[in-house]
Amino acid sequence: MLKLIGVETFYGKIKALHGISLKVLEGQLVCILGANGAGKSTILKSITGLVKPEYGTIHFKGRRIDQMDSEDIVKLSIGHVPEWRRIFSELTVYENLLMGGFLLKDDDLIHERMEEAFQHFPILKKRKTQQAGNMSGGEQQMLAISRALMLKPKLLLLDEPSLGLSPLLVQDIFATIKELHESGVTILMVEQNVNQALKIADYGYVLTTGKIFLSGTYKDLLEEEKVREQYLGEGKYNRRAKVWSG
Ligand SMILES: Nc1ncnc2c1ncn2[C@@H]1O[C@H](COP(=O)(O)OP(=O)(O)OP(=O)(O)O)[C@@H](O)[C@H]1O
Ligand SMILES: [Mg+2]
Questions:
Q1: Ligand 1 centre distance from Cα of residue 244 (Å)
Q2: Is the C-beta atom of 241 inside 6 A of ligand 1?
Q3: Nearest Cα to 44, choosing from 86, 2, 89, 14?
Q4: Separation of 110 CA from ligand 2 center, angstroms?
Q5: Which tens digits make up the pLDDT trace of 3-42?
Q6: Which of 33, 130, 138, 208 could form a disulfide with 169 if both were Cys (CB 3.0 to 4.6 A apart)?
Q7: Dist CA 203 CA 225 (whole Å)
Q8: DSSP 8-state symbol, 2
Q9: From ligand 1's centre to the CA of 36, what distance in Å?
């Protein structure tokens, strides 16, 4: 469904991606792992055209998309839930979902999709008229995902869905992502919660400073000592603890 070959993306003169190649098959849940600044968000932004790769190619369903405008890429049915769930905090849950369905231009369809979102996230139905910014972090993340689902994307990109959530809410959000995956949505997810993310993913890529240095299934990656040490907190140096303590 999605294939990146040798993608190199720059911010000015700074090279953020040093030749990324990866693929996502239809129906898969694929995870990109890596420390702060590794280039995870830049991969997702390169796919949705928010930044343009200088070199390399990106194909989605057989079509080359790396030179297309981001609005056209969204219309190809790629949903992007950015880091820190950028919802409209002044608006209600209902209004946020309406905005998500704006491109549909069909009221009946918009309300049908909204009901589907409520089936995945019943709490949002209860909070329908609440101002989005007043909800808990987990509820806001559910809203951000639901907003992206309004357009029924064939591919959903999730940027650190568990960021800033308490351990209990992290469990909830991963359970929901697993459900979405099982209902047939193809997902490419960026995460720092390595253990939990890999448990639900079909395949994982580990990124360090703009390069993929390992890839494999949860079992493959668990067998890699470097992954256990640096990302699962089993070694002398626990990178995750370092991230959380700021
Ligand atoms: N708008 C920007 N302008 C300049 N440099 C940027 C910009 N956005 C990101 N970078 C740089 O590109 C590199 C990759 O950033 P990116 O946001 O993709 O990392 P990340 O893996 O998502 O990190 P985090 O886990 O902190 O979200 C970093 O060195 C970062 O400083
Ligand atoms: Mg990021």
A1: 18
A2: no
A3: 2
A4: 30
A5: 999 999 999 999 999 999 999 999 999 999 988 889 999 9
A6: 138
A7: 18
A8: E
A9: 8
Question: For residue 237, with 0-12 CB atoms within 10 Å meaning exposed, 13-18 middle and 19 or more buried, which class applies?
Answer: exposed
Alpha carbons 229 and 69: distance in angstroms, whole number: 40
* Residue 16 Cβ < 6 Å to ligand 1: yes
Supply the residue whose CA is at minimum distance from atom 28 of ligand 1.
Answer: 37
CATH T-level assignment (fold) for domain 2-77+154-244? Rossmann fold (3.40.50)
Query: Can you give the residue ranges of every domain in the chain?
Result: 2-77+154-244, 86-152
Q: Burial of 69 by CB count in 10 Å (0-12 exposed, 13-18 middle, 19+ buried)?
A: exposed
- As a whole number of angstroms, the longest Cα–Cα distance in the chain is 56
The residue type of 181 is: H
Instruction: Pull the structure tokens for residue 51.
Output: 């930044």
Rounded Cα–Cα distance for residues 94 and 48 (Å) = 25
- Which pLDDT band, with edges at 50, 70 and 90, does 226 fall under? low
Q: Burial, 88: exposed, middle or buried (Cβ in 10 Å; 0-12, 13-18, 19+)?
A: middle
Check: CB of residue 153 under 8 Å from CB of residue 75. no
Residue 151, CA atoms < 13 Å, CB-side half-sphere: 23
Higher pLDDT residue, 58 or 192?
A: 58
